[in-house]
What we know:
It is a single chain. The chain is α/β, with parallel strands linked by helices. It folds into three domains: 12-95, 3-Layer(aba) Sandwich (Rossmann fold); 97-188, Cobalt-precorrin-4 Transmethylase, domain 1 (3-Layer(aba) Sandwich); 292-568, Farnesyl Diphosphate Synthase (Orthogonal Bundle). It is 61% helix and 9% strand. It contains 24 helices and twelve strands. It has helices at residues 13-28, 43-51, 77-86, 96-110, 124-130, 143-148, 165-178, 190-205, 218-229, 264-277, 283-297, 300-316, 323-343, 345-351, 353-361, 363-384, 386-401, 425-446, 450-474, 476-481, 487-491, 493-518, 528-542, 548-568; strands at 2-5, 33-36, 54-57, 67-70, 89-92, 114-118, 137-140, 155-159, 183-184, 208-212, 234-237, 253-258. The strands form three sheets. A four-stranded parallel β-sheet has the order 1-12-10-11, with helices on both faces. A four-stranded parallel β-sheet has the order 3-2-4-5, sandwiched between helices. It has a four-stranded parallel β-sheet with strand order 7-6-8-9, with helices on both faces. The longest helix has 26 residues, at 493-518. The model has no long low-confidence stretch (mean pLDDT 90). The structure holds iron/sulfur cluster. The site of iron/sulfur cluster (SF4) has 14 residues, from helix 1, helix 4 and helix 8.
Amino acid sequence: MKISVAKTAGFCMGVRRAVDMVLDAANKSDAPIFTYGPLIHNPQVLEMLESKQIHRLDSIPVKGEGIVLVRAHGVPPEDERALADAGFTVINATCPRVVRVQVIIKKFAQKGYATIIIGDKKHPEVVGLLGYARGNGHTVTTMAQLAALPRFENAVVVAQTTQNTKFYEDIKAWCRKHAPHYELYDTICGSTEKRQNEIRQLAQINDAVIVVGGKESGNTRRLAQVAQETGTPSTHIESVEELDYSSLASAHSIAITAGASTPNWIIKDTCQKVEHALRDSRPVTGKVMDVLDVVMTTNLLLALGAACLTFGAARIQGGDSALVYALIAMFYVLSMQVVNNVMTIKADTYNKPHRARFYKAHKPWLVGLAVGASLSGLYLAGTLGALYLLGILSMTLLGFLYDIDIIPKFMGGSRFHRIKDVPGSKTVLIAAAWGVVTSLIPAFADGTDVLLALIAFLFATGLVFSRAAFADILAVQGDRIAGKETLPILLGETKTLKVIRYTLIFTAVMPVVAAISVSRFSVAWMALVPGTMLLLIKAYQDDRFLSSSRYEILFESLFILAGVIALMI
Length: 569
Ligand code: SF4
């Protein structure tokens, strides 16, 4: 069974921007936060906003306080003024593409032009646009309505951003023929069209289509309609619980798409549950996938990767790592990762719903695993000497303290109470900790040359930093909901990807420098690891067809590649 997720599935730019803005406002301010009307038509997102005390304002009170966010559809200018006059701080999250249409209408309305909007007069975006037409706005949903309008001396014609492209082409053709003096503007947003075109293509090469999104969401309903028109069996679900798996039993390939208001976590949950439910039809590969799931979810793959990276770092230092160092690194990483996952169940509910369920269901067992791994690592470090035991113990305590108030909240003052509160700290600390256990501890124990130890440390740290920062990109939506300040939240996805690319290029140079230093040129093969990571980043930027869990498996497997190369050179 092959599952393809449409690369256009989920939030469009305008919706993502509005959701980010309201969550950022809630995470940074103690003032009451409201959205003017429902932020988007998705019940799970609205529920999530309520859980974060972000309430909905359906009418404008005479007096109010707090922050009000104007949603992506925009509002009439008088509503924005009335909100400010009532005492609210207004954050305008109107999509820039809708703002462009507002600006066009405003400009021509000031010159006395009539405005003809091709769109539904009840749709919030159109209601907002009409507010800029100075009382001379007209809405049209059929050719007959357009023909019935008076011939205006001057008029500007625009379309609702989610309008059907073909229909708008017909409208423009009619205007050119019957009212050539009208000013025509192309205002349809490409996002909707791309989404519809993609599902048409995917429906042709797949046996079934699942459209995920709110039943109240107009664009999701239209997407489901487009899928249905292709003739490929399709179903529109609001959440995966509604899915009738028997209708998919004979399908060998399934395409999943989602409306512009569907969050990533619902899409991920759908993919994961569909894939899981259909595993029974493939007894052998299904079992392999089950095992891989457990290995990934419990971080065993990552821990094995840490052991392999220790061997790789040893090769860079011109030596052979003893098994004990690899085991210390493995146990340390396993315990810290499991502790981290136990502490981030809330964020995982939005990032990795299946992992959150697994950790909730098996919490005592997983805590036992973390404690057992931690004690094993400490015991092995103790066999190297008191200094190493103290080093691993300090790093373990730092890991446990990461999410705990070091400065009590009642003392007030700064917003930094936990190490976690320092923006971007997680990615940097994880990378540094891996660098210490995989390269510095073995280097000190073996008395390796300082320069080579530093090169190995930079190599390991660079790889782990890149993997952690990339994982943060994949988890950005859930992290924002949980109020985390990861690198992609601070810098944005584009800049974070740039940082990762430069880090990987720098990391790839390290084995080459080491190869020259130790006069063992085969060590340069280790550059394959960051090189392959760079290719994965490129694949992610070019084409997002791979699911985020597959990217994670590939990234984590590359640490094992470091061990394989170490064995071969
Ligand atoms: S569909 Fe287009 S215009 Fe509408 S909010 Fe999304 S990006 Fe903006």
